[in-house]
Amino acid sequence: MILLAVLFLCFISSYSASVKGHTTGLSLNNDRLYKLTYSTEVLLDRGKGKLQDSVGYRISSNVDVALLWRNPDGDDDQLIQITMKDVNVENVNQQRGAKSIFKGKSPLKIMGKENLEALQRPMLLHLIHGKVKEFYSYQNEPVAIENIKRGLASLFQTQLSSGTTNEVDISGNCKVTYQAHQGKVIKIKALDSCKIARSGFTTPNQVLGVSSKATSVTTYKIEDSFVIAVLAEETHAFGLNFLQTITGKIVSKQKLELKTTDAGPRLMSGKQAATIIKAVDSKYTAIPIVGQVFQSHCKGCPSILEHWQSTRKYLQPDSLSKAEAVRNFLAFVQHLRTAKKEEILQILKMESKEVLPQLVDAVTSAQTSDSLEAILDFLDFKSDSSIILQERFLYACGFASHPDEELLRALISKFKGSIGSSDIRETVMIIIGTLVRKLCQNEGCKLKAVVEAKKLILGGLEKAEKKEDTRMYLLALKNALLPEGIPSLLKYAEAGEGPISHLATTTLQRYDLPFITDEVKKTLNRIYHQNRKVHEKTVRTTAAAIILNNNPSYMEVKNILLSIGELPQEMNKYMLAIVQDILHFEMPASKIVRRVLKEMVAHNYDRFSRSGSSSAYTGYIERSPHSASTYSLDILYSGSGILRRSNLNIFQYIGKAGLHGSQVVIEAQGLEALIAATPDEGEENLDSYAGMSAILFDVQLRPVTFFNGYSDLMSKMLSASGDPISVVKGLILLIDHSQELQLQSGLKANIEVQGGLAIDISGAMEFSLWYRESKTRVKNRVTVVITTDITVDSSFVKAGLETSTETEAGLEFISTVQFSQYPFLVCMQMDKDEAPFRQFEKKYERLSTGRGYVSQKRKESVLAGCEFPLHQENSEMCKVVFAPQPDSTSSGWF
To answer: In sequence order, which residues have a C-beta less than 8 Å from that of residue 14 and are 6 or more positions away?
Structure first.
């Protein structure tokens, strides 16, 4: 028994490195005054960690700590008083010298009388077993000052034994791990576990999102049950996923050192802490130890109307291709987020029709309740006189970075109400589908509005009697990607008429691998091999593409390969090009395809020597170890040489996450009669039609029509100007990350990352009977600006780091076909224009009184233009070449 007791004591002593006579938390000696020095500092930089490249400040003071009361029934129940004295504020970077904003200024002038007096008032901390029971301060103190006091008080919360627990301190309710050693305790706080009410949002798509990492480590040196030194370091680092040059870092440090101990106040007697607190000062009140939100007041700041008046000149239609337009658009969106409905409505009502579409983009992108109410009051969906504004509003809703249920509910209400334009009605339903998917991705599938929207889409598709309604609900499902919609898609894919069947199969093409089950592939195989009915080439080739891209079986691949040679001539060539593209690009199906090709019956000269002009090619725009941008182009012609479908796609990948950046599909049908050619099998009765469909950043847009019907075709051929038709044009808020951080020092930090673009995607199809030539053109013009803004605010001094990265780029695809003879001549080219690439950096430190320091840098380079290969014979990747320009740097007062 004695031996067991000895072993137990040995285990306890080895498990917990404890201070003599005390094993739970800090313990103060009676009648002693502990004199310490304290400092907290913060640094901001772009993650390089160089002091000379950082901005920030340091707050320091002397600190007196005394034990006022100890519970006579337990030593671990203590009430201590903490007082900050001789407060000072200074630069962390001493190289600032004469440029220091604090030079020649006393703490009183820097902080103001109210702040300084509040900071130096004593605070009380009630500790039980080393953990904070209550925190006491005075009422009506400035919140920012109380937070600094909370930051100091939280350092006194610790335990002297190893283990993991949850603690409540200034950071919130957090998971912490203690590692105890002789005379030292290390406290590791899992900041991502902290539960604290703070505003913020982010773009859910990983490709466009922001990755962040936060750490917090506090080291205690213990002697005689009390700290002789505390060193805490907290870091917050972030980076934009798809552009790793956009980074930022916040480093916050706290340091507390014991200098001496003197005779202190005598211990007060009593059994309850509340009685002692009342005796010390009845004005003390218990307040949460968790940091509280405060807003810095902007003195003399412009109103939202004044902001708009200085912004609108950059948003004129002729200026939208410039980076200045996007930069001012992003800045104005930020201002709109603090504006009231009446202020926004006033600006909307007074603006001219030339700038109004851009203003609608900005107001919708603000994504606040006030901005939504204002734009809904302004737009009249019952009228067809403002279709452009209604469409710009709806597309901005579709690209919303963090849509909420309120927005979806508003669109459902509009759809159920009266809408003057059938095109706008269709667009409303398409965007409802987009919002359903985005809300479901954010764990909002069970929201009432989402459930209602699902029923609206699926029920509407089931009951649709008109082709137009069927198309509308299929397009909505193409955005929503509801698993429960797959049976309806299979029905329309196999039994529907040509355009509807094609739309249903392209919708299935957007679903992820887990949803393309064996049952789905059975239907797709029937469509491709025409087991039940004859299908158009576009439907069959889409069905084959889905099979080949979703873990095909050996027999599925073999049957597709065996079909080559039995298909219409151009479809033969197209399917052959698809198989060769799978092999050359090493797609997932390449292994199974190679296995099948070992069989002579599938791989022979007769099958692989088919002539034709249809093609398929996939290549890299850019490739790095952590990301890749790819493009793919497939073109299918009819047997007479007329374009049947061209499909241009651009994808961005980060690891396993992907983003469908853009897709532009141009389709034509029923044009054989113009050149007295024979239509292909299954396409004898198709109406003359040409149109364009686009996906932009995973959002299917409403398709546009070039012509529909023979008479429409002839009238447009006779009056054709050759001008392209715009599919989408406007300003888009694509990246939107906002994060408010409560630093454990008590300071408030904010991280804002916004990415916007001005985009214009247009397309044209020209057809000449005289020259027996057709030409298709797709043009993408994009201006991108990404801004970051990191700030740390104490209410009396603020440090910030702002960066901006911008480029203006163009990508054009042209396909020309001369069908005066067979085989017809085809010329294809895809060119990327030369693009400027600019980076700006601004660092500043600013007092609330207005005095500040600023440093600015600028770096420019040029990305050389290039031509992308579009077939296997010319597969060298287009290389991006930077031509650097001279940098510029400036710094000084403001």
So the answer is: none
Q: Which helix (H) or strand (E) holds 627?
A: strand 627-637
If you search the block for the tokens 């951080």, which residue do you land on? 741
Instruction: Extract the tokens encoding 391.
Output: 């469409």
> Measuring CA to CA, which residue among 82, 138, 89, 84 is closest to residue 112?
89
pLDDT in tens, 99-129: 888 888 999 999 999 999 999 999 999 999 9
Strand, helix or coil for residue 589: coil
Residue 797 token pair: 């001094």
Whether the CB-CB separation of 208 and 734 falls below 8 Å is answered with yes
Pair 178, 24: CB distance under 8 Å: no
Torsion of CA 485, 490, 493, 495, to 10 degrees: -120
CB 845 within 8 Å of CB 853? yes
Find out whether the peptide bond into 122 is cis, omega within 30 degrees of 0.
Answer: no
**CA 362 – CA 336 distance, rounded (Å):** 8
Radius of gyration of the chain from its Cα atoms, rounded to whole angstroms: 34
Q: Which two tokens stand for residue 348?
A: 């909307």
pLDDT at 891 over 70: no
DSSP character at residue 170: T
**349: CB partners within 8 A, 6+ apart:** 378
What are the Cα distances from residue 224, in Å, to 18, 27, 77, 221, 264? 10, 8, 17, 10, 17
Closest CA to 836 of 878, 784, 762, 877: 784
Flag whether pLDDT at 647 surpasses 70.
Answer: yes
Give the closest residue to 687 by CA, choosing from 712, 719, 715, 720: 712
Cα separation, 894 vs 881, in Å, equals 38
Quick check: bond before 823 cis, omega within 30? yes
Cα separation, 461 vs 113, whole angstroms: 68
**Encoding tokens for residue 299?**
């003195």
**Where in the chain are the domains?**
311-378
Please report, as a single letter, which amino acid is at residue 548.
L
Q: What are phi and psi of 651, to 5 degrees?
A: -120, 150
Measured CA distances, 282 to 113, 274, 286, 595 (Å): 23, 10, 11, 85
Residue 22 per-residue DSSP state: B
Q: Which residue has the higher pLDDT, 725 or 502?
A: 502
CA geometry: angle 7, 13, 19, nearest 5 deg = 155
Identify the pLDDT of residue 549: 96
Q: Which residues contact 238 (CB under 8 A, 6 or more apart)?
A: 210, 211, 212, 213, 247, 248, 249, 739, 751, 753
User: Model's pTM, two decimal places?
Assistant: 0.88
C-alpha distance across the termini of the chain, in Å: 78
Q: For 7-29, how does the pLDDT look when each residue is reduced to its tens digit (9 = 90+)?
A: 333 433 333 333 333 448 899 99
Q: What is the pLDDT of residues 569-598, one digit of tens each?
A: 889 999 999 999 999 999 999 999 999 999
Q: Give the tens place of pLDDT for each residue, 852-872.
A: 888 899 998 887 777 776 665
DSSP 761: E
Q: Output the pLDDT for position 25.
A: 87
Could you tell me if 327 and 785 are in contact, meaning their C-beta atoms sit under 8 angstroms apart? yes
- Reference 695, options 504, 471, 878, 430; nearest CA is 430
CA atoms of 418 and 383, how far apart (whole Å): 9
Tell me the pLDDT band of 848, cut-offs 50, 70 and 90. confident
Q: Which of 284, 305, 392, 278 is nearest to 760 (CA)?
A: 392
Written as one letter, the residue type at 394 is L
**DSSP-assigned letters across all residues of 472-492:** HHHHHHHHH--GGGHHHHHHH
Tens of pLDDT, residue by residue over 799-815, are 999 999 999 888 777 77
CA 736 – CA 213 distance, rounded (Å)? 18
User: ∠ CA 24-27-28 to the nearest 5 degrees?
Assistant: 175
Is residue 359 helix, strand or coil? helix
On the question of pLDDT at 242 being above 60, the answer is yes
Give the start-end residues of each E strand in 743-851.
748-768, 773-793, 797-818, 825-832, 835-847
